[in-house]
Amino acid sequence: MRVLGTMTVGAALACGACSTLPEPAPSPVVMIQTDLGTMSVALALDHAPLTVCNFLRYATDGDYDGGSFFRTVVRQTNTANPNPIDVIQAATPRGSDDDSQPPIPLERTRDTGLRHRAGAISMARGGPDTATSSFFIVTQDTPSLDFGGARNPDGQGFAAFGRLIGGLDVARRIQASPADGQEQLTPPIAIRSVRLVGVVPAQCRP
């Protein structure tokens, strides 16, 4: 049998139907507009559907509009913790404990395959299965936030659910803004709007 590169003719013919397979659905994209610039986020709906749909419920209801990035953590100044991190944390105008939607199950990075690399977006939480509205963006690779990492004593990590595809420089600018000794930005960086580009994915509709 003749060989086409590393593929046999038979295999090539059998793969003729491959071109008719549907393309994977594009990742939903959200634009986060702040006073220091705009960040675009591709949401990993296929990996973390519960977390993505929860975030989109808040976003499409306009709950983040008028909120802020209120916290910055920089590893160089976070030496009191043996597992320092680089993140900025956001909240709705009602604060980081805004639970106008029910808390969601924790989608662990062990199960989703996502990682807290530079540009990842993830959910803040207390205990497992307690995340509601507050999210954070990672500005440098921070594996201690993944499942099995030691940033949280329970070792369950945090639910990464997407990544920046534009605006990492904006996130780092926010991180470098003035803050007090309690990691609170002074003043907080206002969120003007959080908008989904396109329509709500079918998986996230009521």
Describe the protein in words.
The protein has 4 helices and 10 strands. The chain is an alpha+beta fold and about 210 residues long. It has an 8-stranded antiparallel beta barrel with strand order 3-4-9-7-8-6-5-10. The radius of gyration is 20 Å and the shape is globular.
Taking Cα atoms only, what radius of gyration do you get, to the nearest Å? 20 Å
In the sheet with the most strands, the strands line up as: 3-4-9-7-8-6-5-10
Order of helices and strands: EEHEEHEEHEEEHE
Most strands sheet:
8 strands, antiparallel, barrel
Could you say which overall geometry the principal axes of the C-alpha atoms support? globular
Quickly give the structural class: alpha+beta
| Total strand segments | 10
Strand content: 25-35%
Give the integer mean of the pLDDT values: 90
Briefly characterize the structure.
By secondary structure, the chain is of the alpha+beta class.
List keywords for this structure.
alpha+beta; 4 helices; 206 residues; eight-stranded antiparallel barrel; disordered N terminus; two-stranded antiparallel sheet
Topology diagram in text:
Blueprint: E1 3-4, E2 7-8, H1 9-14, E3 29-34, E4 37-43, H2 49-60, E5 68-73, E6 87-91, H3 109-112, E7 120-123, E8 135-138, E9 160-166, H4 168-175, E10 184-197
Antiparallel strand pairs: 1-2, 3-4, 3-10, 4-9, 5-6, 5-10, 6-8, 7-8, 7-9
